[in-house]
Amino acid sequence: MDSVRSPEWPAAAAGGPAANSAPTRYAAPVTPGPPAGRPVPPPPPYRPPRVAVRTVGPVAGPRAPVPVKILIAGGFGVGKTTTVGAISEIAPLTTEAEMTSAGIGVDDPGADSDKTTTTVAMDFGCVTIDRSLKLYLFGTPGQARFGFMWDDLARGALGALVVVDSDRLDDCYPAIDFFERAGLPFAVGVNAFDGRLALDLPSIRWALAIGEHVPLVQFDARDRLSVRDALLVVLDRALDRATREKGA
Ligand SMILES: Nc1nc2c(ncn2[C@@H]2O[C@H](COP(=O)(O)OP(=O)(O)O)[C@@H](O)[C@H]2O)c(=O)[nH]1
Ligand SMILES: [Mg+2]
């Protein structure tokens, strides 16, 4: 035996070893180049394909309601927190603290009152009156010793509702004095506890010594619609005042 050869393997690649070399087998097909001697022009710059872009113009949607700040003020235990809670469309923010024996003789909520807490900072609620108007209600603490906060709470307010208990008229004097001095339009809402007033409205107006231009209404702090009507009176007063000032 001269040699051992596998029968499948060819003895040599067709075309010889050069035809089976790596450059021959894997190189890209040869394309003819530019004629020798001519400069090669640079490739054209890349341009992204044009895509039609749809532009969206301003859409005329519904306008957001105008925000208006209104204060709910008045003496201690007259129904300010109740007023805000009755009408607010959100769960009202309250800052109630338990009344303690330290307040006996200082904070008098009235003989028949079952009040056990008091507002120590403010009440907050809001109500949308219509598509163009949204009221933000800020209830003040009632006691005159919290008067230092009223300036801050009153900043930016359009008007105020001074809530009055007809049994304890003197409790609302500090609030009325404050708004008269601040020049903020206000209306007086007499909260008819259990649907009755201790005095009629003309007598209350006389006792509070408020001018004819200050609206005086009876309302029920627990009734949503009644509170709404009282707030509309405040808005009316504020609008009236603004119109007058513009005309002057
Ligand atoms: N019967 C009756 N009770 C009321 C009325 N408004 C408020 N109250 C009660 O009077 C107390 C004092 O009310 P509140 O809103 O806390 O007074 P505020 O100190 O002015 O905030 C609470 O116990 C209320 O439930 C009302 O119109 N009728
Ligand atoms: Mg309160």
From TrEMBL:
Domain of life: Bacteria
Coiled coil location: none
Comp. bias intervals (Low complexity): 10-19
Keyword match Hydrolase: yes
Pfam families in UniProt: ATP_bind_1 (PF03029)
Residue segments, region Disordered: 1-49
Biased composition (Pro residues): 31-48
Alphabetical keyword list: GTP-binding, Hydrolase, Nucleotide-binding
GO terms for MF: GTP binding; hydrolase activity
Gene3D superfamilies tied to this protein: P-loop containing nucleotide triphosphate hydrolases
Family from the record: Belongs to the GPN-loop GTPase family.
Name under which the protein is recorded: Signal recognition particle receptor subunit beta, a GTPase
